[in-house]
Design brief:
Elements lengths: L3 H14 L6 H20 L40 H7 L9
Length: about 100
Amino acid sequence: MTDQGELEHRRVKRFYRGTNKVGFTRQIARKQRRQRVIYNLSTSTAPENNLTAAVGFRESDLLPYTPPTVHHHISNSSRYYNDLAAWLGTHSGDPALIV
């Protein structure tokens, strides 16, 4: 069985292969940070009041085919939804919502 230190060493070696070998320490640190952020996003849960505008990575809400000329995708499912009035109330101080 491989110990945790050896697994971490292999992980860093894998990151090193993806660098250009110039300033590799910073590049590896950036890759590790990016991986940690993605992991934290994937394990975070939605707030109890369901006022998030995103579906977690672990959740599944398949989108129908949408041609590239269409601006956005809309799911056929109503499993994940937001109460628009509640969401707007929660984000009332957001400068992006000022008309």
